[in-house]
Amino acid sequence: MSVIVIEFITLDGIVSDPDGSGGTPTGGWAFRHGPETVAGDKFRLGSTLDDGVLLLGRTTWHLFSRLWPGRNDPFSARMNAVPKLVASRTLTDASAWANSRVVDGDLVDAVKRERRDVIITGSLSIVHALMAEDLIDEYRLLIFPTILGTGERLFPAGGPPRYLECRTAEQTGAGVLARYGRATL
User: How many CB atoms lie within 10 A of CB 170?
Assistant: First the structure.
């Protein structure tokens, strides 16, 4: 089992509001580069979506539950079919998006019990909680040639050092998909 974080990210490390749905002044920055930059399996998840589980926070899950079910392309079919865990203290009904269920109990314990690969998309509070417990195995970052100067960062200031190794980097549209994993020192 691996825990994989996937994020759209700017050159200065901002991950907040890439699609503009948050209504921030700088929101929508990822989509300014055209739909082909963000469409399809840009994070190269492939069979991980078939065998793994998505872990989403309530806000990301709500956004996705309105977006994905109405689509019928091959990648959307995979997104709709994958089992989904929703980490929320307030959501009780996850029936709006097929194969979704609310995490029962403690998030960290649920991730530790999971036998499938866990894919976290967006959901920064979840990423930070698992990061604090050193549970992240891989970061797949679609890095955009954008500098915002403000917003929420993937790696918050004051956090402990993390030593990663670059596994792959490839240009995809206007961005670069970089895969980082734990460094083997």
Answer: 10
Which residue, 119, 152, 155, 128, is CA-closest to 43? 119
Structure-derived torsion over alpha carbons of residues 163, 87, 149, 139, reported in degrees to the nearest 10? 30
Distance CA 79, CA 128 (A): 23
Give a three-class secondary structure readout of 114-167: CCCCEEEECCHHHHHHHHHCCCCCEEEEEEECCCCCCCCECCCCCCCCCCEEEE
The phi and psi torsions of 153 (rounded to 5 degrees) equal -100, 145
d(CA 96, CA 16): 24
Q: Tell me the sheet residues that pair with 7.
A: 141
For residue range 40-83, list pLDDT tens digits in order. 888 999 889 889 999 999 999 999 999 899 998 898 999 999 99
Residue 157 one-letter amino acid: A
Q: What does the block give as tokens for 170?
A: 């490839």
- 9, 87, 183 from 109: Cα distances, Å: 28, 12, 24
> Would you give the DSSP letter of residue 77?
H
Predicted pLDDT at 35: 76
Give residue 14's pLDDT: 97
